[in-house]
Amino acid sequence: MASEALLNRESATALYMQIADLLRTDIDSGVFATDSKLPAENELTHRFGVSRVTVRQAIAQLLAEGYVVSKQGKGTFVSRQKLLHDLKPMRGFYDALIAQGVEPKTKLLEFTPASASEAVRQAFGATDADCFQLKRLYLVDDEPIALVVSTLPPEASGLTWEQVNRNPIYVLLENVLNMPVTKAEVRIRARSAGASVGHLLGLSAKAPLLVMERESFGNDGVLRERTSFYIRPENYEFSLSVQGPLPVGSSIKNVNGSSPRADKK
């Protein structure tokens, strides 16, 4: 287990970073198992021979990396293994979790007619008909990991609450509504949770979130669905494998309006 003797007080690396590295190694090697509680702050202070401030900085570093989570009034616990969402195969959020051996629970919060902008209605190939909004909460081990908010075309008026509650979006589109999906465009960004989303995910309004925006289309180019996934970032990551060099600079969009400078290295 990590000990004070492993700290190099002559190193240019800050002590809190060294402590974070040692605790991270203990977590990766299984010394601290998933969901187990880290030693208390005073115990770590004694073990490493450092101040409480230094220990708090080390824990804050692990929190930022998603290695641990803080539970108010209970302490700091080792995070669950990250769920990996491979973006290359076109599959839904539910199926991406199932592919990793995780069977999430879902809670349907809303399925109602909803007004949409003219641009969205046109993308759906609709005119004055209402679109439909679907709001669903995903839970793993009874803890919320994502809130999913979808806009569906007017054809969704034929769906029942039971059908929507029981089936993922792609299943509803392809198997129930006979509206095959052949292409999806995905964008990923970060934002703060906000009050309403944070409440549903058990987060503060200022907590960071991963947001995946997805638009799915049929062979005819008509929009089939538009979905926003609000995901707790500490246990979730995305991966993408591509052929050839990846033009990172050209794939980054500055949402504030100015173009980012491409990495020329």
Automatic annotation (TrEMBL):
SUPFAM superfamilies: Chorismate lyase-like, Winged helix' DNA-binding domain. One of its GO terms (biological process) is negative regulation of DNA-templated transcription. Keywords: DNA-binding, Transcription, Transcription regulation. PROSITE patterns: HTH_GNTR. Residues 13-81 form the HTH gntR-type domain. CDD domains: WHTH_GntR. This is GntR family transcriptional regulator. It comes from Caballeronia calidae.
